[in-house]
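Lecture notes, unit on protein representations.

Consider one protein chain, 227 amino acids long.
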Amino acid sequence: MKSRAETAVVLFEHSLVRAGIGDLLHNAPEPIRDIIFVEETNQLLQVIVEEHPDIVILNFRLLPDNSVNFILHLRQHSRTVSPLLMCESYPLHLIASLQRAGISGCLSFTATAEEFHLTVSALRAGKSYFPQELLMQLLLSDGGRSEQVIPDILSRRELEVFCHVAGGMPTRNIAQKMELHPKTVNTYRYRVFEKLGVDNNVKLTHLALKHGLVNLGAYDSLKTRLE
C-alpha cells in the first residue's frame, strides 16, 4: 500500500523535543517534510480544520482532563487523521478508552528511533501500531478493543486459524478449508498460542469467547483491517 502521509502536526511544548521529533520525521525512510508544531490543544484543532494533516503526534500530558472526548472531537474534525499518542507510561484502561475513541498508535517517550519510524510507517499506510506488550495487555484486559488489537498481533493466516480453532473446527477440516497441510495448520496454531499467551485450544477458545471473536463472522470483520 502506498504511504499517504504528507503532513504531520506535533503537539509538544518543549522546543528541544519538537526539534528531535522533527528530525525523526525528516529522517524517516519516507520523510515527512511538512511538519506543523503547536503547543496547545486549541491550536491543534484549528490546524486540523485548516491544514487537514494526515498524522497528529500528541503529548499525552498536554491533553485535557477529558482526553477521550478530546480524541472523539478531533476525529469528528477529520476522519482520515491518524493520532499517535506519546506518554511516559501506559495507563491501561485510559489507553483502551482512547483506542476506542480513535487513536491509531501509542508510544513511550523511551521508544527507539526504529520504533518511532515503524509506528509512523504503519500510520502512513492507514494502519494502527501499538507496542507488542501494550497490545497483549489490551487484549487480556476487559477494556481492550479486540477487533483492533488482534489483527495487530496475528498475521492474516494466524488470524484465520485462530478463528477456526476457537470455533471448534478440527485441524484436518481447517487444512481442507484453507488448502494447507495439517502440519502447516498446527505450525500456525502454535504460533497463535505463543503470541496470545495460551498453551492449548481450550484457553484459546476461552480467550475468543471473552472477546466475542469465536465465529467466522468475527474473522470476516477483522480481516478487513488487514486489507
